[in-house]
Design a protein that fits this description.
- The complex is a heterodimer of chains A (455) and B (333).
- Chain A folds into two domains: 185 residues, Aldehyde oxidase/xanthine dehydrogenase, a/b hammerhead (Aldehyde Oxidoreductase, domain 3, Alpha-Beta Complex), CATH 3.90.1170.50; 175 residues, Aldehyde Oxidoreductase, domain 4, CATH 3.30.365.
- Chain A is 24% helix and 23% strand.
- Chain A has 13 helices and 18 strands.
- With 333 residues, chain B is α+β, with helices and mostly antiparallel strands.
- Chain B folds into two domains: 165 residues, Aldehyde Oxidoreductase, domain 4; 141 residues, Aldehyde oxidase/xanthine dehydrogenase, molybdopterin binding domain (Aldehyde Oxidoreductase, domain 4), CATH 3.30.365.10.
- Chain B is built from six helices and eleven strands.
- In chain B, helix 1 packs parallel to helix 2, helix 2 packs across helix 3 and helix 4 packs across helix 5.
- The two termini of chain B are 18 Å apart.
- The chains are: A alpha+beta (455), B alpha+beta (333).
- The interface between A and B is large, with 125 and 121 residues.
């Protein structure tokens, strides 16, 4: 790595002592010698292991659940169903007033994705819990499922999630988050070329080294200590308090040493049910995702579809951009309404375009619920935007890097969401990339600045 | 068969912190009787090294070496509220809270030192080595060790401070979408060079040259580890990863590291990282959040390089050999 201090030297003071020093990390020796304690290193006498019975269907009505054989299985201490959960229907962003509550801790009457938790089994050993889970009998009536966002949005599509009533998240702005700036149709009408293209992505896995989980200890003082690898301590504690209808003062969360998050550990999934198990049995409880659960049950990055329509002039100026973004939330909201909305604030990318129209949708399907992942709301949008930029440059016969200089945002430029640009540095990044990659651009672009008026 | 070479570029920006703000983080700082400093938080270190960065920020602000600072975090009985570690917010939000708390603690520390030295607190400065000196008369000094002892046992002062950082929540206007998604943005430009085998569709990423503008590299070694890791993740996202390889058929999703395709060490490109620093107005010592941003530009850069190599556009991720071969076949027809 190289620090190129020549850029922005006039707006930066390099007068710091501890900051800017590549000091060795204080936790590294523990990590590399195996001495660092992670949550799963807690092992208490009498600890129970929790395993989930999961839906084998993408969409089904639950006619009945029979746990009698599982309860008789040697080593089984407790079997939990929906009626054991005090506030079973929840949504995590309710803490910042993004509702409605739309997801069950344990399925109640219906499953909406393959892998959904239906029954929790607590046993003396992991093996006993697993064997007993296989003995739970659930009678399903399979329902038609929808896996495609465009299908889900068509009239007459099966309703995925009754708590929403339609297969998209209803924002205060309607079926999508909107940005309107200038007159995009007039822009297209006046453009030398109009290019409309569609981009898609697949769900991907966070693949942390350490799988999601927690270990819960019921303390003598009627409190519960939850050792967890959540990325958000109070967010998880407060949601747990709502789900279990238990005062937050009864809960003590300990975490902070995590083997990789990437957004995969901000859903509140393992802690509430494990604490409930500890409360109802009076015993410590461990609930740790297997690698298979981490990869196929925990939320992936959302599948997305992005449609971009641009009006561009022969001289390289983009004069109109219309973006329609679709985020596949899967069966439940989790963080997806937030992610789709983040996209609306990010488009049309780091470029100054006078006419912009943005619609971003959060769509429900019977896929695995998606949620937060490194860059969600932006990452796939950037893939779409930057491939589109390449196509536009080639369409008008211009160098793709020079084309970006022409449109790059600079301090003071008004963004589509009506904030003036501050602290821009795109031009300087491109100038340095031009040098580093030996990709020459015209001198006038190398003389540009994000923040200085050109001479 | 021919191995074809191509290169592609992408330029991006990325917002720091939770979209639309409204995501608070608090911090507490106090000194021990012998002048070490405790930072108490509930923020989570995901392995990226947040604890180390918070220690350096506290040390810089108080004016002591980093090894005099201990970070205690992620215990809800002791740590004040933090929204969490996500949205590239950890360094920016918690860092600002730590600065505010450390400034308050530093002020008390200087007041106690002033009483001991019989000068005004405003006439004092720290030497960064654990001492407090009178400006312009450095022979008149006291160690922070002695100041802390005095505060605890003689003067009855608590060398401590409270910190809070909150960007007020922005609510998008319904019809126009007028809103304030973020207060500062990191930037990047990436050039990727690939080889594509037009018989197998296999892509080899040869080089990835990344330029990142991140406000301030608070700890350059740790910045490097995060940016290199992000760059690798971007390649993986572009070419390899999916939990549903046969979508819309949901079968055959990977369930372990043998089945879930990711690049191995031999598949990783020669990676170059160049960092620019335009300090952000509201960042701790100017820092922005590069944690998510650094895994984004490689994806379109690789996609554009594949087109440059073989002349077909793969607009669906991941860019698999199968998709490239199908596109080449369609192009030939």
């Amino acid at each position: 790595m190289e620090l190129r201090k020549s850029y922005f030297a006039d707006v930066r003071k390099d007068d710091l002592h501890e900051i800017g020093q590549g000091r060795p990390r204080l936790d590294s020796p523990g990590h590399v010698t195996g001495k660092t304690a992670f949550f799963a290193d807690r092992n208490f006498p009498g600890m129970l292991h929790l395993k989930m019975v999961r839906s084998p269907h993408h969409h089904a009505r639950i006619r009945s659940i029979d746990t009698s054989e599982a309860e008789k299985h040697p080593g089984v201490v407790k079997v939990l169903t929906a009626r054991d959960v005090p506030h079973n229907v929840y949504t995590i962003l309710i803490l910042i007033q993004i509702g409605p509550e739309d997801e069950t801790v344990l399925a109640d009457g219906k499953v909406r994705w393959k892998g959904e938790a239906v029954v929790a089994v607590l046993a003396e050993t992991e093996r006993a819990a697993k064997e007993a889970a296989a003995k739970v009998k659930v009678d399903y009536e399979v329902l038609p499922a929808v896996f495609d966002m465009e299908e889900a949005l068509k009239p007459g599509a099966p309703i995925v999630n009754e708590y929403h009533g339609q297969n998209y998240y209803l924002y205060d702005s309607g079926e999508c988050r909107k940005v309107r700036f200038g007159d995009v149709e007039a822009g297209f009408a006046g453009a030398d070329h109009v290019l409309e293209q569609s981009y898609q992505s697949s769900p991907i896995e966070h693949a942390p080294t350490e799988t999601t989980g927690c270990v819960v200890m019921p303390e003598g003082n009627d409190r519960f200590t939850c050792y967890t690898n959540t990325q958000a301590m109070f967010f998880t504690l407060d949601n747990t308090s709502i789900i279990l209808q238990m005062p937050g003062s009864k809960l003590h969360f300990v975490g902070g040493t995590v083997g990789g998050g990437f957004g995969g550990k901000v859903d509140v999934i393992v802690e509430p049910i494990a604490i409930l198990g500890a409360k109802l049995t009076g015993r410590p409880v461990s609930f740790i995702y297997s690698r298979e659960e981490e990869m196929q049950i925990s939320s992936p990055r959302a599948a997305e579809k992005v449609v971009i329509k641009d009006g561009v002039m022969k001289d390289g100026r983009i004069i109109a951009r219309k973006v329609t973004g679709y985020t596949d939330a899967g069966a439940y909201s989790r963080h997806s309404p937030y992610g789709a909305q983040k996209g609306a604030g990010h488009y049309p990318g780091p470029y100054t375009i006078p006419n912009v129209w943005i619609d971003t949708y959060c769509v429900y399907t019977n896929r695995t619920p998606s949620s937060a992942m490194r860059g969600f709301g932006v990452t796939i949008g950037d893939f779409a935007l930057e491939v589109q930029m390449d196509k536009l440059a080639r369409l008008i016969g211009m160098d793709p890097l020079e084309f970006r200089f022409i449109n790059a945002y600079r301090d003071g430029d008004m963004k589509a969401h009506r904030q003036p640009t501050e602290g821009a540095a795109l031009i300087e990044c491109m100038q340095e990339a031009s040098r580093a990659a030996n990709w020459p651009v015209a001198e006038k672009y190398m003389a540009m600045s994000s923040y200085k008026k050109e001479a | 068969m021919t191995i074809r070479r191509g290169r592609g570029v992408a330029a991006i920006n990325y917002p720091t912190g939770m979209n639309l703000g409204g995501d608070p983080t608090q911090a507490l700082v106090h000194s021990t009787p012998t002048g070490n400093f405790m930072v108490t938080l509930s923020s989570v270190d995901l392995g990226q090294g947040m604890k180390q960065i918070m220690a350096q920020i506290c040390a810089e602000t108080i004016g002591v070496p980093t090894d005099r600072v201990v970070v205690d975090t992620a215990d809800t009985d002791t740590g004040p509220h933090c929204m969490g570690t996500f949205a590239s917010r950890g360094t920016h939000r918690a860092g600002n809270a730590v600065i505010q708390a450390a400034r308050e603690a530093r002020q008390v520390m200087l007041e106690v030192a002033a009483e001991e030295l019989e000068v005004n607190a405003s006439d004092l400065e720290t030497d960064g080595q654990g001492n407090i000196l009178v400006k312009g008369a450095p022979q008149k000094s006291i160690s922070i060790f002695d100041v802390a002892l005095s505060a605890h046992f003689k003067r009855g002062r608590s060398i401590s401070g409270r910190g809070m950082f909150l960007i007020p929540r922005s609510y998008p206007e319904k019809e126009t979408g007028a809103m304030k998604p973020s207060t500062c943005y990191a930037h990047a430009c990436t050039v990727a060079e690939v080889e594509v085998d037009d018989e197998t569709g296999e892509v080899t990423v040869l080089t990835v040259k990344n330029v990142f503008e991140i406000g301030r590299a608070l700890n350059p070694k740790m910045v490097e580890q995060q940016l290199v890791g992000g760059s690798w993740m971007g390649i993986s996202h572009a070419l390899y990863e999916t939990t549903e390889p046969y979508y819309p058929n949901r079968d055959h999703g990977g369930t372990d590291f043998n089945q879930y395709l990711m690049p191995g060490p031999g598949d990783l490109a020669e990676t170059e990282i160049i960092v620019l620093e335009r300090p952000s107005a509201d960042g701790p010592y100017g820092a922005k959040g590069p944690g998510e941003m650094c895994a984004n530009p490689q994806i379109p850069a690789v996609a554009n390089a594949v087109f440059d190599a073989v002349g077909v556009r793969i607009d669906t991720l991941p860019i698999t050999p199968e998709r490239i071969l199908r596109a080449l076949k369609a192009q030939a027809n």
